[in-house]
Structures are given as structure tokens and as C-alpha cells.
Amino acid sequence: MSKLSIFMKGIIKENPVLVFALGICPALAVSSQAVNAVGMGLATTFVLLCTNTVISLLRKVIPDKVRIPCYIVLTAAFVTITQLIVKAYVHPLYLALGIFLPLITVNCIIMARAEIFAKKNRLFDSVIDALGMGLGFTLALLAIASIREIFGNGTWFGIELPVLAEHNISIFMLAPGGFIAFGILVAIANKVSNGRAAKLKESGCARCPAATACGKGGAA
Amino acid sequence: MTRMIVSFAPHIRERVTTSRIMLDVIIALCPAFIAAVLIFGPRAALVTGVCVASCVFFEWAYQKLLKKTITVGDFSAVITGMLLAFNLPVGIPLWQAIFGSGVAIILVKQLFGGIGKNFANPAITARIVMFISFPAAMATWAPIPVDAISSATPLELIQRGDLAALPGMWDMFIGTRMGSLGETSALALLIGGIYLLARRVITWHIPVAFIGTVFVLTALLGIQPTFQLFAGGLLLGAIFMATDYPTSPQTRTGRIIFGIGCGVLTVIIRAWGAYPEGVSFAILFMNVLVPFINKLTMTKPLGGIKKKP
User: Fold this and answer.
1) ipTM of the predicted assembly exceeds 0.95
2) Which domain holds residue A25?
3) pTM exceeds 0.90, yes or no
């Protein structure tokens, strides 16, 4: 795989939010305003970059059986650093993101990239992968937040828009609107990636750890 | 239709088509429409017209864009438009009505596969979406031109405890009161309901169970049971929206369970909820339970063995 395609796949083809459906919780929770979405995206990208780097470096050191606890400890450390930096220098963002900032620790995207990519790829590739995935996450959040803020509040990045400012559809600022915007974007991503989201082999039933339990193993 | 789902034998052939049923529902909605225009003035016709036209347009445009069979001719979008308009206040801004129509047709109906495949009633869901999106416009009741009475619906007055301002029973029955376009005239809605029953478009189970439950529960709670029957969207919801085929149970027992569930939820919301009216929330909630009700009340074929659950 070329370096460019490793980077680009995170944006549409394997977009963590819109194709893999990972990290939905922060994607819906902080996406009512574009500013918060970008802040969340960048914070997650930073953590992802750090974890992918370190996990890739340590991939021969970490024993396979205890890899998950190791990843979580590493992630938690970097999240704490991020949290303190955001709290010190971008305090309004810290207040806006609230609990979702420390919750980056359990963000599925970070675990997924460690598991799918960083643990079996070299340092440079893992760094590119983290940047691509982080950008994909940020863009997906920004897209959801733009729909929600423009139609729900009549503003974009806090700038008032003509006409729309007097014609708010406030459901977009609430949780159901988040799901509606998310669904619309998944449909678009699926169309652009030629139905890859719907029939992704890597995340299909065959690869699911619960496949034997739900009885659909191999059916994907 | 390429795939037919057939129930147990024996079968009777009838010349009933989807468009015939839909036409019957439209005829049944006409008295309420006439009442709405008489009570609220010509803008009632305008709002209804805009909702119907935009529903039909959205259905046509979606199917055209996605290269699907155009099913506008079955009149189901017309009904969705009429029912949605009947759930709106007369002064609703038209762009909001068009947005609601788009939600009903595209989001609730077509994205789930079109007619017969939607799990929730499009008009009800669109009303709730609009109710959440435009709280101010959806609760602004224009004064009735006939005789100007207070500008709150009877249920809002009850919630505020302003019982002295309530309209009389006769006003409640013929519909000269505040409320959404098509919900106020109990008389017109009952005429429509009787027509639907006579044409066997609907069965009595859901409306009777729904309305009966509301009556019994409000009587037990002592909150004006007869008044509650004519207030809010109960008759409109029970006769026209809870009986929607794809979103109501197929068995008779199931329909009674469905009706009772709707009634209980309506009374709970009316009596203790933050909103004065709960019919639409109750129907939407029960819509979601329909597959389970169908499964629980499945009938067994003659001579068949009952499957263990």
C-alpha cells in the first residue's frame, strides 16, 4: 500500500465514523457546534497519533495476551496529557467538551487503529494511518456539526447566516437531529465508496468476536 | 408488488386495490376538511393544499431520483399530506409545513422502503418532528374567526388549571375550539370513521380500544372523561392514524392490545406529562411495538400445531 493511499483511506473509503461506525458517541454528543466538533476531532487526532506511534514502536515488546490493557494504559496516559493541555490553553473548549474529552480513552477508533494497523505496521506507516484516520474523524464530525449548526441554529462557527438564522429547525440541535444528520452522511459515504460501508469484509460478521455467540458466523 | 405475503387459507378474492382503500380514506377525511375550512377560514385549505402537494412532490421526486417505480398514483402520499395538515395549527408558516411533508415522505416512509414498509406513521412522526423543531409555531393558535374564544387549546387550559375558560360541550362536539386544523370537529371525524367502518377499510378494534381506554382511565382519575374524548387529537388519531395498515397489528387481539396501549400512554401524558397532549407520542410509541405485538398474537392455522415460543 502506498503512503498516500494509507493516508487517504481514512477520509472516505475507511472513514472511522461513516464507514466503520466507530466513535459514534463523541461524534453525536459534541457535534451540535462546528467549533466543538473540530476541537474534538483535533484532540482525538493528537491522541491517536501518539498511541499509534508508541504502539507501533512497542509492537514487538507488548505480549499478545495483555495487549488490550497495555493499549488502554497508553491511551489513558496520552488522554490525560491532552486533557491538561486543553484545560490550560483552550479553556472554553475544555468546558464545551466536558466528559467527552477524558472519554477519548475508550474511543473505539483508537483501539481499532491499534488493533487493525499499528500493532502490525512500521512506525512511519502507523503515523500516516493515524493522521489519515484522525483527519477522517475530524471531517466527519465537522460535516455532522455543519448540518446541525447551519439548520438547527442558523450559524456556522458562530457566524450568523442570512435567512437561516430566522428559520431554525431546532430538532437538529437535539439528539434526534444528530442521528438524522449522521444517517444522511453514512448514506452519502456509502454511495461515494460504492457500497463499501454496507459490505465491509474486515468488519463483517466473519471477523466479529461475537460471531459464534450470535450464530451468524461466516454468514457475512 | 413482486412479493406477496399471504396469510392462512381459505382465501377470498376481492377487487380491493391500494388506491381504492386510499380513496376511501380521502373521502372519509373530507368532512373534517370541510369543518376545518368552515372553522378556521380559507388558510386551512391553503395549509392542507401545500402539505398534500409537497408530500406528492417529495414522493415523486424521491422515486424519480432513485429510479424507483413511481407510486404517486396510489394516493397514499395525498393522505399523508392531509393527515399532516390536520395535525398543524392554521397559522403554521408554509415552509415549516413543507419541511414536515419532507420528513414524513422521505425520512419516515421512503427511506424504509416506501408504502407498506414504514414502521412508523409518517404524518404522526412528522408532526412530532415539527413539534420539537418549531415549538413556538406549533403552539400558536390563531383566533377562530367565528367567535373569538381564548387562544389556548382545551387541553392547554386544563393543564394550566384554567377550567373556567373551557369551551362548552357543544363547541367541543362540532369543533369551534382551538386546536390543530382537522382535530377539532368530533362530528366530522365521527362521520368519517363511520364511513371507514361501513366500507370495511378499518375494523372497530383499534379506535374502540383506544378511545375506550382513554374514557375509562380519565373517569377513574376523575378528569372530565367525556370532555377528554373530544379534546386534543384523540378522535383524529384513533380513527385515522392508529389504524394505518403497516403500522398497526394484523390480528384482532393485537389491535386491541395496540389500542389499549395507545390509550394508556395518552392518558399518562395528558395527566402527568409536560405536554398537554399525548396522542401522537402514544401512537408513535405503539408503532414501534407493533412487530412484537404481531409476534405475540400470531394465530395458528386450522389444524396446525402451536409453536412453542
Assistant:
1) no
2) 3-211
3) no
